Structures are given as C-alpha cells and as structure tokens.
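Fold this sequence, please.
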Amino acid sequence: MVTAPHIPSPLIDVLRRLTEPLLAGRSTHSLAVRLRDEVQWLSRAADCPHEVGAPFLDGKPGGDGWRFLHISGGGDAAEVWVRGPAHAGLNAVLCLSGQIADLEQDRDHLCEELLVSHESLASLYELSDDPALVLEPERALQAIIERAVAFQPGLRAIMWLADGEALTPARWEGTAEPSPRPRTGGIVGRALEIGQGLIVNGWRHDDETAPELALANRVAISPLLLKSGPIGALQVWHDDAGTFDSRHMGHLRALCALSAMIVDHDRLRQRHLQSKQLEHELDIAATIQETLLIGRVPDLTPGLDVAAVSVASRQVDGDFLEFFTHDDDVTDVIVGDVMGKGLPAAMVGAAIKNHFTRHAATSVHAKHVGSPDEVVARVHRDMAESLIEVDTFATGVYTRFRPGASRLEYVDWGHTPGLHYRRRTGRVDRLRKEWDGLVNLPLGMHASTQYETADVHFVKGDVFVLYSDGMTEATGWSGEMFGVERLAAALVGCAALPAADIAARLRDVVTDFAGPVGLSDDLSCVVVRIEDGPALWKLELPALMSSLSSVRRFVLDRCRALPGLAADEQTMFDVQLAVVESASNVIRHAWPEGETGCFALEIQPAEDHVTLELRDTGAPFDPLSEPEPDLSHESAGGLGIFLVRNVMDDVRYERTPQGENVLTLVKGFGGE
C-alpha cells in the first residue's frame, strides 16, 4: 500500500494559496516567486523547515537535501527546487493544479470550436438550397469557391484537386488562371501532407511554387479530406495585413467537406466503381442524415407525445423528417421521400427540407400561421422548376396537429398514407383523400400542381403513424413485402404504449421481418400519440376599453379552430358576446377611476364544450350578484350580465384566496 506523504497543516494553507494563481492562469514565474516567499515565511513562522528556490530567480541552490520540482499550467512551465520533508505532497498538489488549468484551457477551446461548427453548418445549409447545383459538380464547385471569397471583401481563392502526383486547379476566383504544380512542396503540399488546415499571418513570400502569393500578407489552406486521405485543397489569401482566425478556418473546412463529398461522388460515378461507391455513400449518408435530413423531435409538445426512429439501409436514400412547434397548440410534422437512391436523392432531400424549414419557420414568427397547403405550395413554387430540370420528384405528407381543437390537418402529396389508430373503436384508418386533376401531386411532378388540405378529428388516446415506404416495402426471405396490413396490426398491438415505445416496436417488427437480408430502403417513422392534457390558450391584456377588439379577435380565431363550434355561427356569436361583455365589466369595475391593471383570458377546449375564464386582481366584484334588469325600462342596468347568463350554459364567479377574481363561462357545442 502506498501511503500519502504527511504534509504539515501550515504547508497545506500555503499550497491552497499557491493553487489559486495557477488556476487563474498566472505565469509560473510569478508562481515560483510566490512559492519562495510563502515557504520562507512558513519557515520563519512555524517549526516546519522548508526552502524553495528557482534557477531563474536566485540561481541553482547549493547544498544537500534539495529536490527538483517542475511547475506547469496554462501552457507555461518553470523549474523550482524544494527542500523539506513534504516535497512529494507539494509535487502532487502542484501537478494536479497544472492538470486542472490545462482542462480549463481545453474547455475554452471546445466552446470556440462549437461556435465555429455552428457557423460552418449554416454554410452547408445555404449551399444545399438548389438541388440542380449539387447534381452538377462544375456548378457546385464554382458556387463553393464564390462562397469562400464572399466571406470577406478582397479575398482570392484557388481550389486544387489531386491528380496523381500533380495538383490541378479546378476553380479559381480573384486571380489569373494558375498552372498545375507538384503535389508535394510549398504550403499547399504541406497541408496535404499533414492532412490539416494551415493559417499563415504575415506571409513571407518565400514559396516559389505559389507565384500567386507574391503580394499576399496572409494565407489559409484547408484540405479536401476523405477517409482515404486528402484529394485536394482550398487555398485562400488576402493582400492586406489583417489576420485569419478559427472562424475563417471553420468556414473553409465546411466548404471543403461539401467539396470533397461532391468531387468524390462524381469520380465514383464516372469510374463505375460500385463497391467503393457503396462504402463512401454509406459514410456520406450517415453525415447527411445526422446534419441535414433528420430533424430533432421537439422537447415539449403540449397534448402530444411525439417520437421518431430512422434506420439507414444499405444505400444512401432521400428520406427526410422535420418538426415545427408554432405555439402551445400547433405542432407540424413533415415526412418526405425523394425518388431514386444515392447521394443525389439525399442532397435533393436536404434541399427540400431546407425550403420547408425556411417557409414554416417564417410563419412561426408571423402573425398569420400559413396553412399546410400554403406552406407546401410555397415550397413547390420554389423548387418545381429545379426538380423537373433534374428529372426527379418527392413525395411527402405535411401534418399539423391541434390538440386543443382535437383536429389534424394534413397535405399528402403522393406519399404512403399515414395510419390513424382510433382508441374508441380499435380500428386503424389510412390518412388518404382522393383528389381530381392536378391536385396534391408529388413535388416536381407538374409545375401547375395545386395543393389542398384535408382534416380528421381525433380524441385522447388516438395514435398517428407517419412513415416512409421503406417500412411497408421491406421484403423477407420469400420476397414478400411487409405491407400496410402487417404494420396496422402491429400498431393495434402496441397502441397503448408511449410514442417512443410504439416507434421502437414498429421498427423492430419490420427489421425482424426483413431478417438477414436487411433493408433495401431507409426506414423512417414518426409516431404521434394524443395525450390526456389538451392545450390551454391564454391572452393577457391591459384593462383598457381598446383591448376589447383584441379579445374579440382572439376568441374568434380560437373558436374557428374547434370543428364543432366553427360549424355553428350562432354559438360562435354567443361566445364572443359573452366574453366581450364580461371583459368590459372587468375593465369598468375592477379598478377605481384613474387606476388600471391587467386581466387574463384563458380558453380550455374539450371534445363537446369550451371553458373560458376571465382573471383579474382588481377589487372584488361579483357580476352574478347584480339583480336581474327590469326589461320594461330602456335604461335598465345589468343588461350585459343578463345576456351573458342567457347565452352561456354555465356562468360562475369566484374570489380566490390569492385575491384574484375568476369569472368562468362554459358553452357546449356539437362534436364530430
């Protein structure tokens, strides 16, 4: 057993004080000075003979009993000599302190790299907008080098591709056409040799292999890397005396990653090396699915339990998923699939998903949330021409869940129909509505396609499954497809489980059916289970008469979202009348003249009724205590609350212990 050395308690206090400057990143020179002063003070103040010396302070100490001690931290180091029985303990504490300081530096570097990675991913998203661009290597590389020099005015750039032992210029911007050069030697050759990016600020113009850098003051090189090694490099330089930093290098790395992917795919296609193509595309598929195609399931969706699974097949595919939460009661889910296989399908899928993200995210922040058919129509308008040009199309379904209204709105453009498990009957229905003419065709099928929304009512406990054809078209040993019927039967058997368990069970059933043969197509599946907690709509306003128009508009918009209520105009009018009249009473009576406050309106929808509550913290005022008006007199008071009582099914008032007035209004309506 190794026994820790005894350190006298006065020395422990010294060590504690010594670790503070080390962790704070102070130089070891100052630490050595402090170490010497502290130990000398300790030797004078207590019976604990310790001495310290530093060669660069006092010269090398002489005499017996001195032990060498190395202090390091924050990238600095110094030699220190210590004499005394606690040398081992002092050494251990100082070494540990140095390790902590180094870890602090590592953390700061990781935070910086995370910011750079975020900016780099944004560059990839922007370049993936045009599917025709990524399918044409020459145009794609030109767009990439233009993006490289657009990072800062005055930049120049060359993209080099390795061709045997030579480097040939593939694209250049801001400079004359460069000549081919040897792959080895020079700054580009050095970057290719080490397989890492290089930044040189204060360029010395001593690279004879790079005449274009004769006037450069700063240079940055990033290699185009594959698993097999570098296949080229992107060279950027500037003539002014500024500096390149990690942000510039992160931007170049992102562009080089996309360039390497495009160049590699083009070479594989031209050489018809199917086995190598499969290996490379599988690697690319994993990256694309993680960063571009598979969206993240929202953390909190009131009234909904949402889960998703995705299983990659032996080939790259174009399945994509995305999710949007507009507010507490609107959650959108998109599932799509691009025709064909391979990297082109995956990149087209990424471009389509990016357009959906742009249009749906815009409506998230707008006052008017675009309907599913409006969003799909916008994406079709943006991309139809490009998709038709490259002879491809995409199927999909855009769904919008409104738990408060117990309704699903969806646009299905040629996709495999989703499944709807109905808890009340145990039946599974398909989400499919037939349309005539050029309505709801796949994206890119016809430029004049129009899109329409269908809807379906749901209740608590219902389950929706949206999936790609990789599930139903999975084949077993006999060549038979898994099919929709097996999927529906599997759903019935696990519909009572949470959404994540349902998704996992359906995935396992399909992969077990495929067996050792494996999946020939990607498997993507989203499960949405209707929870017990419906959404609650809230609005808070100042207690001013001008707020009544906002109250009226809020109630009207929410009533229109309830199928049973929207179909009855008289009932909608009654609800608006009751709420506006009650809000008017709050504004007029809750606060003395000259004072004001705020009031809140909450709407809680249910399957066959809606509950509305007005809350304020003004003076106690029970409108129900007012006597019924004498209708024989035109100027009779209390007419407003009389109308409220007559048009609503239930009206209640409560003064809470917290000093809040709560007026509750309930109105029933016919359901589906």
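The chain has three domains: 131-270, 294-530, 537-668. The CA atoms of residues 20 and 97 lie 9 Å apart.
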